[in-house]
Amino acid sequence: xxxxxxxxxxxxxxxxxxxxxxxxxxxxxxxxxxxxxxxxxxxxxxxxxxxxxxxxxxxxxxxxxxxxxxxxxxxxxxxxxxxxxxxxxxxxxxxxxxxxxxxxxxxxxxxxxxxxxxxxxxxxxxxxxxxxxxxxxxxxxxxxxxxxxxxxxxxxxxxxxxxxxxxxxxxxxxxxxxxxxxxxxxxxxxxxxxxxxxxxxxxxxxxxxxxxxxxxxxxxxxxxxxxxxxxxxxxxxxxxxxxxxxxxxxxxxxxxxxxxxxxxxxxxxxxxxxxxxxxxxxxxxxxxxxxxxxxxxxxxxxxxxxxxxxxxxxxxxxxxxxxxxxxxxxxxxxxxxxxxxxxxxxxxxxxxxxxxxxxxxxxxxxxxxxxxxxxxxxxxxxxxxxxxxxxxxxxxxxxxxxxxxxxxxxxxxxxxxxxxxxxxxxxxxxxxxxxxxxxxxxxxxxxxxxxxxxxxxxxxxxxxxxxxxxxxxxxxxxxxxxxxxxxxxxxxxxxxxxxxxxxxxxxxxxxxxxxxxxxxxxxxxxxxxxxxxxxxxxxxxxxxxxxxxxxxxxxxxxxxxxxxxxxxxxxxxxxxxxxxxxxxxxxxxxxxxxxxxxxxxxxxxxxxxxxxxxxxxxxxxxxxxxxxxxxxxxxxxxxxxxxxxxxxxxxxxxxxxxxxxxxxxxxxxxxxxxxxxxxxxxxxxxxxxxxxxxxxxxxxxxxxxxxxxxxxxxxxxxxxxxxxxxxxxxxxxx
Length: 734
Known about the structure:
Structural class: alpha/beta
Radius of gyration: 26 Å
Number of strands: 32
Distance between the termini: 61 Å
Shape: globular
Helix content: 10-25%
């Protein structure tokens, strides 16, 4: 275990160089008109590009990972002296008043990879699946604003988030970073997160563009899919996020898409992103994802983490390509223009970051709020929850519950600011991103605090028989189980690792009043489900997750999370029961995404496969009733309904509107949702207007979205499989 800062302690911050942070002199705008903040970002960018030399332009197009690195030949690559140690660094143009780009990961908090900034911590927010489980765009905005403000306070001006790839496979090692399987939910939440980040004058990055749906051997995966289907699923999520949030940058992925690397894929970067969507920002590569200087001609604007590539492609090789004409001067100027435009538009030139103290206590309150609202109650047999505070004996078992709650690994890993945290080293003595970080407080402690008159005893769960013996003498057994997931590695199946299924079976056999708390980065199989009384899906609940778990177990708050991803019964029910990228020795691992646009719950509905727990599902300690559904049509579809808390407790509900028939064709598609918090007996009317793209399809031949004229039917759902009230309206085609 390694001590971090105590709650509320001011972080140790790193100062920018005086040149980068200094305000623009009063007369500079006259001599350098691109520094005139009253001009439009595009005009300013054009003026700056015209004043730059060739080498100054090239200097903005590539930069290193700002971490100590050793090349394959053993040559050490030091961190540039002017950089803040972190994800990346792009030198500025001091002569023209253009600051450097100081880049940090990521969506779940400001990362400190391998502890490269000694003593520096950050608010460790709940993971993307927790946020998605809230179905709350306002929380997404607040989360983005929190991370953006902390990044800015540490001197960074580019945040490499938010991550938003659709969860096509529940074994993907990075699903925990993302926002579920539905394009509307993911796009809306990602867009609001980006908006929150950039309102702090920090450039946000949506990633990984596109179809980075599996992690193992991601550099060799060739993601194959019908183009129209991609437009209606993964790309639609990105399009919605870009429209709502206006990110300054898009990060392209490691994998290939239909044969071409994503970072050199002209159809993705030029045709879709820049031409069709008119995206004005820049495309940065993922770290080590560039393969040729001529990727510039295909739409890539900037090479990131240059020392991870075979060579610095956007240095001398790009210079040579400009000289031989294979990359045009106009394209070079466009690349630079896009970067500068985002810098001006977001405000990092006019208002550069200023390091300052961070109120981690206030930020911990938001982390707790997200965790409370994102934990999903999956089972509550006999209303065993909420627990009575006077239970005599409580057995807490497994899952490092005496240390903290699990978090995900890789570039998204955050060192939590709310107290000493535990590190379980998995990659050697030196800290690295394979390690398991357990965020405080420990659930064992919060449970004991919530039930001060109970005898609370702990067993680590290493020996199921010993844990069962403890459970047999308890009134309640709470079994914590964990699944550590990490960037660059998928899991091979849906099973809990390290014999934890057997642990649950043993405890449940000894005590039928067993509650299972899942801390996982993905859905898992539950062969023991019929033999336990309750199940909570907590995902990776962040630095206040231990408190949130206790608050729900003892009924201090109503469980209101809803699943943003389907729980299948078994791997046999998946589109691909086995992953073709696992164990492959090939330099290319094709994955055929034959489900097309039918991601997640839409696949199960199409194949009539009953999931274990459906998308949108989640239980509550109260009851909600729906009524008076009204549907209007014409050029758009609008749906409204009354929602009432018919129970005895204050709680939150997420009514979901699903399209079930489009001009006579059966479909199942989420077209709207709203989170409502209601007191007992309170009712409120909610209304959604469906984005027309959710009613239609993309016509690849005609290169546009189309909505057929006809009758459209909707159902109001508590989940994708629990559909009740319905309605219909006629929609004009377009």
